[in-house]
């Protein structure tokens, strides 16, 4: 920096090293944008990896579907089967893609609906084609069009009947198969041969889907249902203990920002998440029970007509317990809270009752998991009743604390949850 004495201006000379280079603004902007664009990709890959690690059966299912589709595609890639069935063999791939489900029971259920719908549609299609051929060349398209309208209206109405709701997919398959067989048979000629080839192709695809799903890393709906119910028991016990620990902890309920804080943290707490997951298992348990009814005896479930519906009933009772825990969790986020010292007064009795109840729930979960035929847990039930009675007696003995005039009446309220 050079400056002349007595001058009002200052001259500044800045010299840069000749080898140094400054990237243009556009390049810096592009580099920053590229780095930001890679972050969502890495996060997505990490999420997919965690999703696969959470349940390895998902990866097995994906590979099984790929294998089944490959085996079906070989019927087209090899000349011999392609010369027998022609382009109709593509129906095997469609059948595998539609019929292959996550569990064996769901695949059997979907396969039964697929087979029944295809057979019924094939029979009606052959009858409609014969009627169209006998009615003459001019009346044939009108007969086929009328039959498509009647079949579409009948199947759409029947699948709405409450007693036929479980076979809703079968009615869709029947309508889909009937329309394609009738229309393609009318245009391609020799409709009966076309119908039979397509039914054979559907049977081949269904057989490949069943064999791959059953013989290669089978995923049984019964086992999934069993594990899901046990997990629900554990979630309820963990949520109960978490709520009580939070209630007995000095969480700063006397602060002015307490109300806002608890409302913000409400959906992120582990107890709330576990209870919500248990309450949302109703549809999943029912779906797994329906699929398990289609499965043959397997693994630990070696009896025909296994009472899978009882799992759904136990899950319904367990959800009532989860509702009670959810109500307790709601008390933790109430604006009116008991003082911390008042909670400490009843802490031993509250912890004892909580531990006894959680132990009973976990014991039931263990028995269900091990499928052990033990007697009723009368000792645990008696201990739960005794602990609740001790808590009630403690409240009666210290009832004067609940009506003390030395405290703000809004702050001395003891939650009854």
How many independent structural domains? 2
Q: Proportion of β residues?
A: under 5%
Kindly report how far apart the N and C termini lie.
77 Å
Low-confidence stretches: 1-21, 405-417
Mean pLDDT level: 78
Question: What structural category characterises the helix and strand content?
Answer: mainly alpha
Q: State Rg.
A: 34 Å
- Number of strand elements: 0
What does this protein structure show overall?
- With 417 residues, this protein is mainly alpha-helical.
- The protein folds into two domains: 57-215; 221-402.
- It has 17 helices and no strands.
- The termini are far apart.
Can you give keywords for this protein?
2 domains; 417 residues; 17 helices; 0% strand; disordered C terminus; mainly alpha; disordered N terminus
Structure, briefly:
By secondary structure, the chain is mostly helical. The chain is built from 17 helices and no strands. The chain folds into 2 domains: 57-215; 221-402.
Strand and helix map with partners:
Layout: H1 25-54, H2 57-77, H3 79-85, H4 90-99, H5 104-134, H6 140-158, H7 168-188, H8 191-215, H9 221-248, H10 258-265, H11 270-279, H12 282-292, H13 309-332, H14 340-345, H15 347-370, H16 378-397, H17 399-402
Helix pairs in contact: 2-4, 2-8, 4-8, 5-6, 5-7, 5-8, 5-12, 6-7, 7-8, 9-11, 9-12, 9-13, 9-15, 11-13, 12-13, 15-16
Membrane topology: Multi-pass membrane protein
Subcellular location: Membrane
Keywords: Ion channel, Ion transport, Membrane, Transmembrane, Transmembrane helix, Transport
